[in-house]
């Protein structure tokens, strides 16, 4: 056990560890254009940040009146995303630094995301983050996506950790809500700073309203040490 006690840390992937949203936007824009929606904008995309790709395509079918089967839309989007992700995905440097600090201290870590297993594998391998985490949970591993707690609870189960001892790092309101529903503390780093007042963020233990520009590995690590001390008291 590390000097952080029984603490385990679970990271969301997209928008939290890596800035993959530009790739998801481009993949979504291209897929929707193929199926007759030519004017999908970045502002449109922002409303789906934190929503699993599978749930997103279901919302598209309703929003745009698409008759295309959800599985076909999902496959088209994932195919384009994988091409983009393999070419380039940017890791947030301070998030990598935090993962490295936790790995050096022996703290168990997981990545839990609403992305597909293939998308997660491509990003984690391509960025080298796969060497820093011991557990990966994808949308395919659970019955319900965020804001349901399933993804984080499955990560805790695989880590052998009590949810009470887990801290989640999230960029989206549905993920912060999922962490709370799972009985976990949450460091919220909003990808869209203007969404910081979303009710989903209200239960976060630490909310960095300015997003990634306010996040540093050292300050997060210090906060985690304080959380671990509180848990063990």
Question: How is the topology of this model organized?
Answer:
Elements: E1 8-11, E2 18-19, H1 21-34, H2 42-46, H3 53-64, H4 70-87, E3 90-91, H5 93-104, E4 109-112, H6 117-127, E5 135-137, H7 150-159, E6 166-170, H8 173-181, E7 185-188, E8 206-207, H9 217-232
Parallel strand pairs: 1-4, 1-6, 4-5, 6-7, 7-8
Antiparallel strand pairs: 2-3
Helix pairs in contact: 1-4, 3-4, 4-6, 5-9
How would you characterize the overall build of this protein?
The model has no long low-confidence stretch (mean pLDDT 94). This protein folds into 2 domains: 8-17 and 92-229, Rossmann fold (3-Layer(aba) Sandwich); 21-88, DNA polymerase, domain 1 (Orthogonal Bundle). It is built from 9 helices and 8 strands. The protein is of the alpha/beta class and 233 residues long.
Level-1 CATH class name of the largest domain: Alpha Beta
Using only CA atoms, what is the Rg?
A: 17 Å
Structural class: alpha/beta
Biggest sheet, in brief?
A: 6 strands, parallel
Gap from first CA to last CA: 16 Å
> So what's the overall shape?
globular
State the helix count: 9
| Proportion in helices | 40-55%
Number of strands: 8
């Amino acid at each position: 056990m590390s000097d952080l006690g029984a603490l385990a840390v679970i990271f969301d992937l997209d928008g939290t560890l890596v800035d993959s949203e530009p790739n998801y936007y481009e993949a979504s824009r291209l897929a929707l254009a193929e199926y007759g929606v030519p004017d999908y904008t970045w502002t449109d995309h922002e409303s789906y940040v934190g929503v699993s790709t599978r749930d997103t395509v279901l919302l598209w079918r309703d929003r745009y009146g698409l008759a295309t089967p959800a599985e076909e839309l999902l496959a088209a989007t994932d195919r384009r995303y994988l091409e983009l992700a393999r070419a380039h995905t940017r890791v947030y440097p301070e998030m990598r630094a935090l993962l490295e600090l936790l790995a050096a201290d022996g703290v168990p870590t997981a990545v839990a995301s609403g992305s597909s297993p293939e998308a997660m594998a491509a990003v984690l391998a391509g960025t080298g983050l796969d060497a820093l985490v011991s557990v990966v949970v994808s949308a395919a591993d659970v019955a319900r996506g965020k804001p349901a707690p399933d993804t984080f609870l499955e990560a805790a189960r695989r880590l052998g950790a009590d949810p009470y001892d887990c801290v989640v790092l999230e960029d989206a309101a549905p993920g912060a809500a999922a962490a709370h529903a799972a009985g976990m503390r949450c460091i919220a780093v909003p990808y869209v700073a203007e969404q910081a007042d979303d009710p989903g963020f209200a239960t976060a233990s630490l909310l960095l309203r300015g997003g990634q520009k306010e996040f540093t590995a050292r300050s997060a690590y210090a906060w985690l040490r304080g959380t671990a001390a509180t848990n063990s008291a």
